[in-house]
Design a protein that fits this description.
The chain contains 4 helices and 17 strands. It is α+β, with helices and mostly antiparallel strands. The strands form 2 sheets. It has a 12-stranded antiparallel β-barrel with strand order 3-5-6-9-10-11-12-13-14-15-16-17. Strands 1-2 form a two-stranded antiparallel sheet. The longest helix has 30 residues. It is globular, with a radius of gyration of 23 Å. The two termini are 37 Å apart.
Length: 335
C-alpha cells in the first residue's frame, strides 16, 4: 500500500513539474524572446520588435503624435512595452547577479552557497538505523528559488510527502523557506569566491513524525572558493526552534561539499554533513554522513530554461545516526 501511495505521489509531482515547466517556458519565450544575453543560461536572439515594428521605427513613430497628444500606435506599443518590462528588468538582475559570482554547481545535500534561480525537486529513500524499513521522501524541502535583486535570493519549498514502510502514518511535512544575502563575491579569474549570510526556517504545516510540530529558524553563514577545476562550498548554521526546544533541542549543522568540474558538464563530488545537538531529547548527540555523488548538466531546454540532474547516497560515519544509506535523486531547472 505504501509503495502504491509513493508511486501515485511521484506521478502527481512530476505532472505538476511538467505543467510548471511548460507554462514558464512559454512565458519566457513570449516575453524574453528579444533579450540579448551573454550569460551561459541564455540564448542569443533577434533584436526586440514591438507591435510588429523594429524598435528603432517604434522610437521614431513615438514622436509623431496627433494634435491631441495621442498616438494609437504609440499607445499600443507602450502597453506592450509595459507588459514586458518587468520580465526584462528581472532577467537583467538575474544575469547581473550571476555575473558577480563564481559558477559552481548545486551540491546534493549542502545548501547551494551561491545565489541561484531554479526550480528543484528532490526525492530520497532512507533506511532506519536497523536497516529494516525504508522511508521515502518526495520533495525533500526543495522548490522554487528566484533572484529578485542582485544580492538576494528567495526560496519557497513546499511540504515534502513522506511514505513509510512501517506502521507510521504517511503525510506531508513542513513548509520551508530561505533568504540568501550575497555579501562578497568574485568571478573566476578575479578571486573565485563567495561569502554570504542566509536565513531560513520552517512552519509547522505537517504533524509529527512527518513535521516537526514547531516553527524553526535557521540562520546560516556560507562561503565558497574555487581552485581551478575544484571548488569548495561550506555552510554552518543553527536550527533554533521558536517553541518546543525541550523536545527538539538546538542543532548546529555543518556541511561541506568538494566538487570537481569535468568539461563544465560532469561534477563528481564528496560531501560531509554533520549535526550536533544541544538540549532536547538528543542532547549531546552528533551524527556525521559522507555523501559521494555526481551532478550532470546543464542541458538547454527552451530559451533560458535548462536541466540538470544529480544523485548521491548519504552513508553514516558515526555510531549514532537516525537513518542510513539515504539515496537521493535531484532534478534542477535553472532559468
Amino acid at each position: 500500500m505504501a509503495f502504491k501511495l509513493g508511486i501515485s505521489c511521484v506521478e502527481r509531482s512530476f505532472c505538476f513539474i511538467a505543467i510548471l515547466i511548460a507554462v514558464f517556458a512559454a512565458t519566457l519565450r513570449a516575453q524574453t524572446s528579444g533579450e540579448n544575453d551573454a550569460h551561459p543560461f541564455s540564448s542569443p536572439v533577434p533584436a526586440l520588435s514591438l507591435c510588429g515594428q523594429p524598435a528603432d521605427d517604434w522610437l521614431l513613430n513615438s514622436a509623431a503624435l496627433d494634435q491631441d497628444g495621442s498616438n494609437p500606435d504609440h499607445t499600443n506599443c507602450s502597453n506592450s512595452h509595459q507588459q514586458d518590462d518587468w520580465v526584462h528588468s528581472w532577467m537583467r538582475k538575474v544575469d547581473e547577479a550571476r555575473a558577480s559570482q563564481p559558477h559552481f554547481v548545486s551540491p546534493i545535500v549542502t545548501t547551494h552557497v551561491l545565489l541561484v534561480q531554479q526550480y528543484r525537486y528532490d526525492m530520497s529513500w532512507q533506511q532506519d538505523p536497523s536497516g529494516g524499513t525504508v522511508t521515502s521522501n518526495y520533495g525533500a524541502s526543495r522548490g522554487l528559488e528566484i533572484i529578485p535583486t542582485t544580492r538576494l535570493e528567495v526560496g519557497i519549498f513546499p511540504p515534502a510527502y513522506f511514505v513509510h514502510q512501517s506502521k507510521t502514518s504517511d503525510g506531508f511535512g513542513d513548509l520551508a523557506w530561505q533568504v540568501k544575502f550575497r555579501a562578497f563575491s568574485a568571478t573566476e579569474g578575479k578571486g573565485d569566491y563567495f561569502v554570504g549570510f542566509f536565513l531560513g526556517g520552517s512552519f509547522p504545516t505537517g504533524t509529527p513524525p512527518n513535521g516537526l510540530g514547531h516553527t524553526v529558524l535557521t540562520p546560516t553563514f556560507a562561503a565558497a572558493k574555487g581552485l581551478g577545476s575544484w571548488d569548495i562550498q561550506s555552510t554552518i548554521g543553527a536550527n533554533l526552534p521558536a517553541t518546543g526546544t525541550n523536545l527538539l533541542g538546538r542543532m548546529i549543522v555543518f556541511n561541506t561539499a568538494v566538487d570537481y568540474k569535468i568539461k563544465s558538464k560532469i561534477w563528481p563530488m564528496i560531501e560531509q554533513n554533520s549535526t550536533f545537538w544541544s538540549d532536547g531529547t538528543l542532547d549531546g548527540k552528533k551524527e556525521v554522513f559522507l555523501t559521494p555523488g555526481v551532478v550532470l548538466g546543464s542541458v538547454p531546454l527552451a530559451e533560458r530554461l535548462h536541466l540538470s540532474v544529480g544523485g548521491g547516497v548519504q552513508i553514516a560515519a558515526t555510531q549514532f545516526h537516525q537513518y542510513n544509506h539515504r539515496w537521493i535523486f535531484s532534478v534542477r531547472f535553472p532559468f
